[in-house]
Structures are given as C-alpha cells and as structure tokens.
Amino acid sequence: MAERLAVSDLRLRRTVVLVGMMGAGKTAVGRAVATALSVPFRDSDAEIENAANMSIAEIFARDGEPFFRRKEAQVIARLLADTPAILSTGGGAFLQEENRRAISGTGVSVWLNADLSLLWARVRHKDTRPLLRTPDPYGTLAALYEARVPVYALADIEVRTLPRMTIEQTAGKVIEALRDRGVVTPEEGA
Ligand SMILES: Nc1ncnc2c1ncn2[C@@H]1O[C@H](COP(=O)(O)OP(=O)(O)OP(=O)(O)O)[C@@H](O)[C@H]1O
Ligand SMILES: O=C(O)C1=C[C@@H](O)[C@@H](O)[C@H](O)C1
Ligand SMILES: [Mg+2]
Fold first, then answer.
1. Of 165, 173, 183, 190, which shows the fewest CB atoms inside 10 Å?
2. Model's pTM, two decimal places?
C-alpha cells in the first residue's frame, strides 16, 4: 500500500488567496498553511502597512478608504504575478470585482467561513479595524457579514472554521481542500 505523503512532499501549483470576514483567521491560518507547505506567505494588509509605514487605521484616517482600496488592488495584482504563495487578503478585498477577476485569473480563492458569533468574539476587543469604529460595532459587523456573505460565496473553495478548531486544524482543512482540487499535488519523484 502506498505510504501517506508528508505535507513537505506536496507542491503548490497556484497562489491560494484566503478571503472572508475580518476575524475569520485569514492571516493566522494563511501563515500556518504556508509554513506547512514550505511556501511564501503574503498578507495584503501587512504589505500595505509596510509600504506606507502606517497602520491600516492611520491610512483610513489620513487618506480615506478609497485610497486604501486602490492600494489593496495594486498589492494583490502584484503578488498574484509572483511565484505561487499563500496570500491572505483584507476582509474587503474580495468585494471588489477587479480583485475577484485578478484572483480567478491566476490564483484560487478560499473563503474562510466563520459564524458571526465567532467573528465577534475575535474582533470585539481589538481596536485595529477602522470599519468597526462606530457607535455599534456589533451591528456594523453583522451588517457587513450579511452584505458580504453572498460575495464570499463566489470563492472557488469554502472552508468552515469552527470555534473549537485550532489554527493548525483549520490550516489542515484548507490543505485537504487544496489537495482535493489539485491545487497542491505530490512533488514529482516523491
Ligand atoms: N482557528 C483559529 N483558532 C483560534 N484562534 C484563531 C483562529 N483563527 C484566528 N484566530 C485568532 O483570531 C484573531 C483574528 O484572526 P486573524 O487576524 O488571522 O483574522 P483575519 O481574517 O486576518 O482578519 P482581517 O480581515 O482583519 O485581517 C487572531 O487573534 C487569531 O490568532
Ligand atoms: O473587512 C474589511 O473591509 C477590512 C478588513 C481588514 O483586513 C483591513 O483590510 C481593513 O481594516 C478593512
Ligand atoms: Mg488579516
């Protein structure tokens, strides 16, 4: 009987783009997937922050959301042109048709889908997300969730993330889904 392949024997064929709501775990899970597959990890929010030398909250406050969205689209297009990697996006990136088109052109999109209650538990104590700086952050998150879910559902693959799953378990689920779709394949000769 063939032995089960180790994760390190797998090869990533296309850039995997994690999409979904803020707090779904795109950054945390994306990094774990990249580590497991020994491929580069990129995060569009971090790329924008590093280039501007400012936090996302500062960019929103100084230059406005439309400016941030233009930078986000540029960063995503640039990273998609690079060698296959794991690319975690900001929660609003997949909402822009331009980004969805770019992602489906060269990458594969994975929607990390978490329930609203789990998202709220993860983001409620953090002050880093400018869109939630409203008098009713829970109501704002719920409205964003409602409006965005039909768009995230356009992603190529959906992976549900549940409250009791660790980051590594969710990453394992993502890798399994990528194997099923032939996005990660056995390394030749492995
Ligand atoms: N599967 C998980 N198990 C436990 N904690 C998690 C899991 N996924 C994410 N977290 C934690 O939840 C928080 C939010 O996760 P993360 O920053 O990765 O979300 P995100 O989807 O990248 O959000 P954003 O769109 O704002 O960038 C982090 O503190 C992270 O460590
Ligand atoms: O959901 C969103 O629109 C956002 C999520 C974060 O990742 C950041 O990209 C920014 O705070 C906007
Ligand atoms: Mg993130």
1. 190
2. 0.94
